[in-house]
Amino acid sequence: VVRNTQLWVKSDDKLLYRILQNLTSNAIRYTQSGGVLVACRKYKGQVQIMVVDSGLGLDEDEKVVIFNEFKRLHKSPDSGEKGLGLGLSIVDRIVTQLGIELSIRSVPGKGSSFMFSVPQAKPQTVVTNNELNSKGLHTNHHFEKTVICLDNETQILQGMRALLTGWGLQVYCAEDSLTVIELLQNDIVPDVMLVDYQLNDELGTEVVELLKQKYGINCPIVIITANHTEELKQEVEKAEYQLMLKPLKPIKLRQLFNKLFNH
User: Fold this and answer.
1) Local confidence pLDDT in tens for the 263 residues of the chain
2) What whole-number distance in Å separates Cα of residue 125 and Cα of residue 198?
3) Which SS3 state, helix, strand or coil, does residue 170 take?
């Protein structure tokens, strides 16, 4: 929704996706007639995202208890629904983690709307080789190093592979920790690792600690995240990793590689 309307946000795409996925699934589940609308708009420097349905609606008490784990409302015995009632409890945890306020408007029998806002950011632009060269970053120099990219989004890995191979790097991509372990067991020795912080069921920092303990990896680690909290910054600094914030800019990554590899 955000990308299709060219509204870019300063937040973690994967966490936003999970919020929208759970809110939309819940709206569809409890809407027998009418429809479900997912929309967003610019508002006072932010992006308002909303999920509106014409379903069963909620009273004041239900607006609170729906966020409890394993709580499902209006379940029909013959509905065939197999949900565990975890969707909105997951939403509650994510919005708390991101510091987002989720508002609910609902009328019993007429439907509900869930709305939250996130800061708006400028679209990420692709930096060309000419732009890099104009800043003295020497894109004609090849690093001839090996990098492992860990991210659970295939499109991001494809983009990283295309970018980094153009810089002369040997690139290995992994969508989870098990794939990284397979690479290490096959004698792939990284000179640097690019690790997304928020994976599907893992945190990038935890994966790196596991790999250090079990496989003794000893290379620069770059944690990539949309989490701008001071707590994460301190955690990364304490572990002596590098931190890069989303949206990731190729020019910044190139500068970091120049520093790491002394070019």
Assistant:
1) 333 334 444 445 667 778 888 888 888 888 888 899 999 888 887 889 999 999 888 888 888 777 765 455 554 434 444 443 456 778 888 888 778 888 899 988 889 999 998 877 655 544 555 554 544 444 445 678 999 999 998 888 988 998 898 888 999 999 999 999 999 999 999 999 999 999 988 899 999 999 999 999 999 999 999 888 899 999 999 999 999 998 888 888 988 998 888 75
2) 22
3) strand
Q: What's the sign of the alpha-carbon dihedral 97, 242, 14, 1?
A: positive
Backbone phi and psi for residue 21, each to the nearest 5 degrees, phi listed first? -60, -45
What are the C-alpha distances in Å from 146 to residues 139, 161, 240?
17, 12, 20
Q: Tell me how far apart the alpha carbons of residues 42 and 7 are, in angstroms, rounded to a whole number.
A: 7
**Nearest-angstrom CA–CA distance, 129 and 141:** 11
From residue 34, give the alpha-carbon distance in Å to each of 62, 73, 110.
21, 19, 10
Integer Cα distance of 222 and 147 in angstroms: 11
Q: Residue length, the chain?
A: 263
Please tell me the pTM assigned to this model: 0.53
- Whole-Å CA distances, 91 to 34, 80, 219: 24, 23, 36
Helix, strand or coil, per DSSP, at residue 219: coil
As a whole number of Å, the CA-based R_g of the chain is 22
- Burial-class residue 44 by CB neighbours within 10 Å (0-12, 13-18, 19+): exposed
